[in-house]
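Input sequence (511 aa), recorded before submission:
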Amino acid sequence: MKIAHVRERNAPAGSPWRLAAARDARGEHWLDLEEARQGLVVEDPRRAHNAALFRQPVTTLDDHLARSLRVEALAEIVDGYAAAKPEDEAILAATDLTFGPPVLRPPSLRDFYAFERHVKTMWERRGGTVPEAWYRIPIFYFGNVGEIRGPGDPVWAPRGSEELDYELEVCALVDTPGIDLEPDRADEAIGGYLILNDWSARDLQREETTVRLGPAKGKDFATTIGPWLVTPDELADARAGEAYALQMSAYVNGIETSHGAWSSAQFSFGEMLARASADVHLRPDRVGNGRQRMPARDEGRGAQALSAARRHGDAGGGTARDPDQSHCRTTRRQGARKQGARRPAAVVSGFDAELARLRAVQQRLDEHAAAGPPPGLTEPDPGGTERWEAGQVWAHLAEFPAYWLGQIQHILERRAAGDPEPIPFGRIKTDPGRIAAIERDRHDDPAALLQKVRDGIAAAVAQLDALPTHAWRARGLHPTRGVMTPSDILDRFIASHLEEHAAQLDQLRGS
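Predicted structure, token format:
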């Protein structure tokens, strides 16, 4: 299988990612796995009784693995829907889709140093030779999982750097727990492979490594993955010993800048996993947010993928330079931001605290949805007269997280376009769209509306967690609340608003 997070290109701002599987080898058509799951359950309700896969919605790969299901379990949906016709609503054309990171919020990232030619090149540039230990021990460092990018997402050089470089890497996703794995069987813990671009600020990295610790700021500002994950069975025909006979190439503006063979790695993924799991647990998911991934670097510096290389290479009008007269290029990016421009200092957004609030309120709403709608009317809001039935509360809960997430995106887009801040955004209680959505959905099943709430929360978590620090300083102007940052909107209009309406359901349940 090929598995990806997708959303329709023309979907409303803030729409959640959907998990999809390729329908063909070229990835021209994709199957929406949640739509397919629902269709299969309607076709045979026993599926929901017999398999955990069919009992809950398929949302993201992160959520799927958090339920202790392996990637390969999704094949039951893909195979069950194989006979669907092209016009089926669950089948999506790739030309209509945007692709996100195959894993949205991984808890851990181990990056190995596995190709000898790359290692030799780096040591020769420092006037040294490859240490003997490299040939015996798979060496890795921990990457920054807080700065994961999807294909096509923008990347800029960190402050103080003029040498933004990229690397072509193959990456393995561990989708089952393990400790002290044996090299000859460790790759059984791999759920799939993907392409990874380990962005590097070479000038910062050179300075840091003289201290014999790191890499640090030369590596931690961005890592791009995607556009999809490929399960091991897709590569079975290319298996060559402990690796795969597959070629890897990277291009910038149509020019090949690096090339290598997966099979030339010094260590197999089994050996790297054995090293990584020695005396420690590898966990596929701790909080429903991702996996441990272990890339193996190509021997030449390269790009994350052909399409991403064209987007992220030197397309912004910068110049390429090659001080070592090798085929590896160090690229100066001028298009992403003006050289010398200072990025704002880190903003303490309280995101982890907000995440805990969102999880807690979602649990409360889960309980209310399971109990069914209670009778009665809510108490009026302070200073207002609006009283609702439970169905109206649920309808409002289902619509506003996506709306406010879209408003944050609106502020950021207008800011990027050069509009002066604060940027007008938002609505008031009498907004016709708000009222229409509540009236339209007030009689829907609370379980169905709860799924919209869950999707809205998941989208908020995924998109806001991926915001760069400068984005949290953006300022919007609300009609009644004045100037607000994305952090303020998350707190007031998403987290607090969910809590207030959960309290209304509590009141109805207790009355």
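Checked by second reader. The two ends are 51 Å apart (CA to CA).
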